[in-house]
Design a protein that fits this description.
121 residues, 2 domains, alpha+beta, 7 strands, binds zinc ion, three-stranded antiparallel beta sheet
């Protein structure tokens, strides 16, 4: 989900989507049949996580997904600078730049850059 702000250069406000990661999880951890790759204590745990992800439905909030899995690496955005997993971030999208390659920067890092540059009041 992207909302373009009026600032120049173009800065996109990017929000982590309410998207199920159940099938991605299954692709990584399900080995076929009754066989699951071990996760956080064993194969039974990775299967239980998959079932809990399915139970969240097709549009879970990223925090619900993180609570089931036990970390934020699956449904949150990663800040390119500090590597924190966040719900929203900002991305500069200059003309002709492939936005998928553009760094995502979290609000605390944006603020830190602004302070460093002396552009805050
Ligand atoms: Zn950051």
């Amino acid at each position: 989900m992207t909302r373009r702000m009026s600032a120049s250069p173009p800065i996109a406000h990017v929000v982590a989507g309410n998207v199920s990661v159940a099938e991605d999880w299954k692709r990584v951890y399900h080995l076929g049949g009754d066989h699951w790759q071990s996760f956080d204590g064993g194969p039974a745990r990775s299967k239980a996580v998959y079932e809990a992800l399915v139970a969240l439905g097709p549009t879970p909030h990223p925090n619900e997904t993180a609570k089931v899995i036990g970390n934020r690496t699956w449904a949150h955005l990663a800040c390119t600078h500090c590597h924190e997993r966040v719900l929203q971030a900002y991305r500069a999208e200059p003309e002709g730049y492939d936005k998928e390659d553009a760094p995502l920067i979290c609000a605390p890092c944006v603020l830190a850059f602004a302070v460093q540059l002396g552009v805050t009041s």
